Amino acid sequence: MTLVELLVSVALFTLLMFVVTTGIQQMYTYNAYTFAQAYQVQNARLGMQAFIRDVREMTFADNGTFPLAVMEADRIGFYSDIDRDDSVEYVEFAYDAPTTVVKYIYNATGSPPTYDTSTPDETITLSRYVQNDLQSTSTFFYYDASGGAVTNPSNITDVRYIEAQIIVNIDPVRDPGQFMLRSSAALRNVQENI
Question: Which residues pair with 176 in a beta bridge?
Answer without folding.
Answer: none
